[in-house]
Write a structure and sequence with these properties.
There is one protein chain. The protein is an alpha/beta fold. The protein is built from 10 helices and 10 strands. Strands 5-6-4-7-3-8-9-10 form an 8-stranded mixed beta sheet, sandwiched between helices. The protein binds adenosine-5'-triphosphate and magnesium ion. Magnesium ion binds next to α4. The site of adenosine-5'-triphosphate has 20 residues, from α4.
Length: 302
């Protein structure tokens, strides 16, 4: 049985999934910088984006379903700690050889609504407390730029603008946040022909630039669903690691297999089972790796 098949089998044996979104998880509350409301600043539903940087409005992000309720924060923090460990190792070469472009981590899923944006934000927050690591969260979901909207930066210049216009310095599109080690790049404008742009040499150039100048910068990219769009596949060729989010008891096995096939021979794919109760003491998340060339793994919970 292949590693992928084993992983799928694990998915199938999951017994209980969490009901409504928002019930299931917890955010790394210790990761969180305090909310500093800034009256009068322009705002999205989940944050404010004043010139000085984005101030994460955790209450609004929670209300938008992108952060879990306070009471679940400890559990989620523990789960993300396990999930991020192998990702960081490969990204910056901590204890293992550094993966090619391993610092570029794409959060993907087969179909919409599996928890990509939730995972991208919570993983980025968790990574941001790692020692000697800086994190750039990129809204590469150019089809549905939810993070840009929640951060009050919908329609602001971002990734797409840099792709369209080689004279734009990608660094100029990066916004600091009130978490000192976390920055954000919005999706930008001009989604037409995004697939071609995302697979272009310019995208490679931007990806290289995003990791530059900061030896330990990890870039987390939210993305559109693999089977519903072509943009994600284009993006997958640029990144060094892919986290495929699978919603427990929701995604049919053949659909997940199709998505994994679409990713081809990518050497570093990990699966995260989202909104599941089985598999560990905390009972909320259960992650495991799918092997590519070697064992990249989101570790099991116990
Ligand atoms: N672990 C979780 N705990 C609680 N709620 C969650 C969890 N993961 C996702 N959700 C909820 O599920 C819904 C879908 O999540 P999210 O928007 O992150 O999915 P997505 O894969 O980004 O969707 P799309 O493809 O439409 O962009 C949201 O309402 C979110 O709040
Ligand atoms: Mg999303």
């Amino acid at each position: 049985m292949s590693v992928v098949e084993k992983a799928i089998q694990k998915l199938r044996t999951e017994k209980r999934s969490i009901g409504a979104p928002g019930e299931a998880s917890a955010a790394p509350s210790t990761d969180a910088a305090p909310v500093r409301p800034e009256p009068g600043a322009p705002r999205g539903s989940g944050s404010r984006a004043p010139a000085s940087g984005i101030i994460l409005d955790r209450a609004a992000l929670r209300a938008a379903g992108l952060l879990p309720p306070d009471e679940e924060s400890g559990v989620l923090a523990r789960e993300y700690r396990k999930i991020k460990r192998p990702l960081v190792a490969r990204a910056i070469g901590r204890g293992v050889p550094r993966a090619a472009n391993g610092h570029l981590i794409m959060i993907a899923s087969a179909v919409p609504g599996e928890g990509k944006t939730f995972t991208a934000l919570n993983l980025a927050l968790s990574l941001a407390i790692e020692k000697d690591v800086r994190v750039l969260l990129v809204d590469a979901d150019v089809v549905k730029p939810q993070l840009s909207r929640e951060f009050g930066l919908q329609g602001a210049p971002g990734l797409l603008d840099a792709l369209h216009d080689p004279s734009i310095d990608p660094a100029s599109l990066v916004h600091p946040t009130d978490v000192p080690t976390l920055a954000f790049m919005p999706a930008g404008r001009g989604a037409e022909e995004a697939t071609e742009f995302l697979s272009s040499a310019r995208m490679q150039e931007i990806a290289a630039a995003l990791g530059e100048g900061d030896g330990a910068r990890i870039v987390v990219l939210d993305s559109p669903p693999l089977l519903h769009t072509t943009e994600s596949i284009a993006l997958s060729h640029v990144v060094g690691q892919i986290v495929v989010v699978v919603r427990a008891e929701s995604t049919p096995q053949p659909v997940l297999l199709d998505a994994l096939k679409a990713l081809g021979n990518h050497p570093a794919i990990s699966l995260v089972l989202n909104q599941s109760r089985s598999g560990g003491t905390s009972g909320y998340y259960y992650g495991y790796g799918v092997e590519g060339a070697d064992a990249t793994a989101v570790p099991t919970q116990q």
